[in-house]
Amino acid sequence: MENEKTIAALNKLVVINNDRIEGYKTAVKDTDQSDLKGLFTTYLTTSAHIKSELYDEIRKMGGELEEGTKTTGKLYRMWMDLKAALTSNDRKSILDSCEKGEAVALETYDEVLEDENVNLSPAHMMVIRAQRARIKADHDAVKAMRDSTVSV
């Protein structure tokens, strides 16, 4: 039973990283700004690496990897805003949408870390906190870029 709760918690993080992967794939494909393309490629790679780490932990516990995305709520709206911003090529809006997506990912990590119903091992806590720190760094970088962008 404990393994099931831990696997479900880890899969919740897989899903949020699946969302990041799909969102940034779209962003890489749809932006013509080379610095943003590079940034989004980096974030896509980070999420793929994180997903792989989570998969390893889930597999060790005998669980199945969640393959889907979370196409509801705040994250869905954020990716739709990103799609619209990419279409209009509005740099500040693109970065604002990305920052909001990173904030949702951080909220998801915080939910898992704070969930009293899940008894994460110290090793899992260490992995999850390290992943959260990487996503926080991405969040802070994109937020700084957004805040330094002048609207026209």
Features:
single chain, 5 helices, about 80% helix
Put the structure in a nutshell.
With 152 residues, the chain is an all-alpha fold. The protein has helices at residues 2-30, 34-60, 73-88, 91-114, 122-148.
> What is the beta-strand fraction?
under 5%
Number of helices: 5
Percent of residues in helices: over 70%
Task: Kindly report how far apart the N and C termini lie.
Answer: 55 Å
From the alpha carbons, calculate the radius of gyration and give it in angstroms.
Answer: 16 Å
Spans with pLDDT under 50 lasting ≥5 residues?
A: none
What is the number of strand segments? 0
Shape: elongated
Q: What order do the helices and strands follow?
A: HHHHH
Q: Averaging pLDDT over every residue, what do you get?
A: 86
Main sheet properties = none
Instruction: Specify the structural class.
Output: mainly alpha
